[in-house]
């Protein structure tokens, strides 16, 4: 389990299905994900089972995000496309729309990245995002990720071919910018102040 000021990142459980269904069934939240909005609890259970197996096989590691105060489940984040030989992995994440703009995902990814680099011995962490996903772009850049280029016509998304932007963060870059990132992440956010990302 990973802990931040406002969140707990714990391994996914099948018992999370009802709460995560509320996240994954929202059309706006899943707009840039490679899934259609879920329509049944069983689909949520299948997704969770997939991530659990991925972790068991050493191909990824996914966490459920739980608020420290209210114990609400508000999303997930984690690693996939894990290449142990080359010490790299890709991150993925989604957050309940009710919690957008308050820095929750930035807080979660900060501890996830730190764990990836310093506990899992990753040297490079990647992220692929839709060019129109401005919230994700702002989030990644605020954490020090650099855009490497555009993967043209990279995948099928909801019946159409789409480009994806490739971002990456290296261990040495994260270490150098950690103090600056910490100052941003843990700066108090007032009730009326919202940020551009997640």
From TrEMBL:
Gene Ontology terms for molecular function: protein-N-terminal-alanine acetyltransferase activity
Keyword Transferase attributed: yes
Superkingdom of origin organism: Bacteria
Swiss-Prot/TrEMBL keywords: Transferase
InterPro entries: Acyl_CoA_acyltransferase (IPR016181), GNAT_dom (IPR000182), N-acetyltransferase (IPR051531)
GO CC list: cytoplasm
Pfam families: Acetyltransf_3
Statement: the UniProt record of this protein carries the keyword Transferase: yes
Domain N-acetyltransferase: 7-171
PANTHER family, alphabetized: GNAT FAMILY, PUTATIVE (AFU_ORTHOLOGUE AFUA_3G00765)-RELATED-RELATED (PTHR43792), RIBOSOMAL-PROTEIN-ALANINE ACETYLTRANSFERASE (PTHR43792:SF9)
Annotated protein name in UniProt: GNAT family acetyltransferase
Organism, scientific name: Priestia filamentosa
